[in-house]
Design goal:
15 helices; about 525 residues; alpha/beta
């Protein structure tokens, strides 16, 4: 008992080590790669994000400046009417009263034509340097950038010149100060500069940022450009803040990709195992769809089609498994299983006493290997059916990789009396070049052309071209997908009398097909 427990424990440890080595470690590394890769973009992401924030703020500021520039002429006209332009006590009182009551105005002054001046704040007569930002906001108004010696920042100044004198107003730049300290202390600098002379700039914030490239820049009005700059420490702050969310998102993304891959791999592995199980249990069975010669309403033969009958499940359509088995190579044993069952079925119908033909679907890989085809042909020796009553259909929708070998195999099949037909003609890789290179003498016209009959679809002209080509080449032609009397008559009128489709009968199990054959004989 102790020995069994030790063996069991050792087995579990070995299994755990194998899982760790084969799955957990690579998976962990993959997730880490995703996480660090995405987190390494924090610099770009943070800059883009901050740029979008600054752009939104700047655009609001842009509206503020544009509005102010439009309002300034009206404001100055209103102010000008409140003065006598004689610098009397009345004018001095008005200057002080207006400045005190209007939070947007820092200081005002009047300068008369004779050089006499008066101001709202007599103590503020320190030296002021001014440069013009807009020489003509209107015919009588000039916009200046003013710098007072006692202030570290600049302000906007407006001059309105009239016949009585000059009204000068210094404005408080409240909006720019708000953006300057919005994200952190003195982190954002905004500037108004002239498009014609970029040395003339009105700015609020850390002047050293003016040497950097702006994070946002746009033209406003009257030849002015609004620029926004941010300090490196603000960028670093956002870069740091974004690292962890990006790392976690990368972890989530890596985990999601890993889970998706494992689910897909598990589904493929489970499908592969189910198909292998189906082959062992003979779950793949042939269904038969009749091919009718409408010239005399007789049965030309049938096409054998694969169906998967899983125990306790509905019939599985070939579209659910054929694409996979063609890639996995499981199509070969499935084809052999279908042929083996089909020759037994058809043998019960005494087809060896007729000229009726059974078509079997194969893929290019099967026609490119003589060994594979000989193995399939060996299954036909167990029936009385003549080789001339067997035909292989190879689809044009899959590419041949070795046309020389395929041509040799087809020639050997033809020597045995077995015909090879080109299925889905005109829809795939080879075009009609396969007919010449493989010396194919029979083709099947695809449903996509037949269903255009009675419509104005351009493919209808292609159908007529295929028919003309087939006739001139002396080829046997079978039309697939015939579903209406109109389609059948159209084809018959052009000499295509071998027809297959739901109009004559859907793919059916052998028992139903046997009844169908008897009904055709009775008719």
């Amino acid at each position: 008992m102790q020995l069994k427990q030790n063996v069991f424990v050792e087995y579990n440890r070995a299994f755990f080590r194998k899982c760790t080595r084969n799955f957990h470690l690579p998976s962990f590394l993959l997730v880490l790669i995703f996480s660090f890769s995405l987190s390494s973009t924090n610099g770009i992401v943070s800059e883009r994000y901050l740029s979008s924030l600054i752009e939104d703020d700047s655009r609001r500021l842009l509206k503020h400046y544009s509005s102010k520039l439009e309002d300034y002429p009206t404001m100055l006209d209103t102010l000008s009417k409140q003065f006598r332009y004689d610098c009397s006590d009345y004018d001095s009182d008005q200057l002080k009263q207006i400045t005190y009551n209007d939070y947007q105005i820092r200081r005002m002054s009047l300068t008369l034509n004779d050089g006499v001046s008066c101001t709202s704040f007599d103590a503020a007569q320190s030296s002021i340097s001014r440069v013009p930002l807009i020489l003509q906001l209107t015919a009588d108004i000039t916009l200046w950038v003013a710098t007072e010696a006692r202030y570290a920042q600049q302000i906007i100044a407006l001059d309105q010149v009239s016949s009585k004198g000059t009204l000068r107003v210094y404005m408080e730049p409240l909006a720019t100060d708000e953006l300057r300290n919005k994200y952190c202390a003195d982190c954002v600098l905004t500037s108004l500069s002239s498009e014609t002379d970029n040395t003339v700039t009105f700015w609020r914030g850390d002047a050293s940022l003016l040497t950097e490239a702006p994070l946002f820049s746009t033209e406003i009005t009257h030849g002015l450009r609004l620029n926004a700059y941010v300090t490196p420490k603000l960028l670093e702050q956002y870069k740091h803040d974004f690292w962890l969310p990006l790392f976690l998102f990368g972890t989530f993304l890596g985990g999601l990709c890993l889970v998706s891959y494992r689910l897909m791999l598990g589904r493929r592995m489970s499908l592969h195992s189910l198909i292998e199980q189906g082959i062992e249990r003979d779950e793949f069975v042939p269904y038969y769809q009749p091919i009718v010669d409408v010239s005399n309403n007789s049965l030309y033969g049938c096409e054998m089609l694969a169906r998967w009958l899983r125990a306790g499940h509905d019939i599985i359509s070939p579209m659910e498994f054929i694409p996979y088995v063609e890639k996995s190579g499981q199509i070969f044993p499935i084809t052999d299983q279908l042929i083996s069952q089909a020759v037994r079925d058809i043998g019960k119908l005494n087809w060896h006493l007729t000229q009726q033909v059974m078509s079997i679907n194969v893929v290019p890989d099967q026609l490119e290997s003589l060994d594979i085809m000989q193995k399939s042909l060996a299954l036909l020796h167990t029936t009385k059916i003549s080789p001339s009553q067997i035909a292989f259909e190879v689809t044009e929708r899959k590419r041949f990789t070795n046309l020389t070998m395929a041509s040799d195999v087809i020639e050997q099949l033809r020597e045995c009396g077995i015909d090879v037909k080109l299925d889905d003609a005109g829809t795939g890789y080879g075009g009609f070049s396969y007919i010449q290179q493989l010396n194919i003498r029979s083709l099947k016209i695809d449903k996509m052309f037949v269903e255009t009959i009675g419509t104005s679809d351009i493919k209808l002209s292609l159908l007529d071209s295929i028919i003309v080509f087939g006739k001139e080449a002396g080829m046997e032609m079978i039309a697939e997908g015939v579903e209406t009397l109109e389609q059948s008559n159209y084809l018959a009128a052009r000499g295509i009398t071998l027809q297959q489709g739901y109009y004559f009968g859907k793919p059916m199990a052998f028992r139903d097909f046997a009844y169908y054959c008897k009904s055709m004989v009775s008719r």
